[in-house]
Predict the 3D structure of the following.
Amino acid sequence: MTLQEALNVFNLSGSITIEAIKDAYKKLCLKYHPDRNPAGNDMMKLVNAAYEWLNRNADRINEGYSHTEGAYDYAAKFGGVLEKLRALEGLELEIIGNWIWISGETKANKEALKAMGCRYAAKKVCWYFRPEEHRSLGNRKSHSMDEIRDMHGTQGRESTGGRRRLSGRKRQPAALTGA
């Protein structure tokens, strides 16, 4: 995660203070708490990762960086894309770092994935959604999915079931009633 990516999760720009980061973190915790929001579990992992990164690098936040250029609310965009992906049938989702990797039955959903801003990784044979500002200009080495998981950590895989299922939960069979 980069500084700009972490700030975009909190939708912060301009002069950044530790208090502003804490206030934004508290608001996002209330908004995306898993008890309040079905997509909250994945969103809270993203928010916590950004908060930890900003705390570790607090001394670098205002050192000559322009926080207004390219700033946007990545948390809202990420959550929106995640909900749209969960509404599609037959996909496998895996959140690694702040990227969403998409596999499974992607051919039938190709146009919907493109419309959401997802891109296809031919060498990995799967789709991905990433922050707009993240481009690997200096690192052109190809990494396997296992190497990417080791570098950035994974939050597990989730199967989508379309609108009939929420957050990857399996449908429970109806209880048999005996007469």
Notes: The two ends are 59 Å apart (CA to CA). Residues 163-179 have pLDDT under 50 and may be disordered.
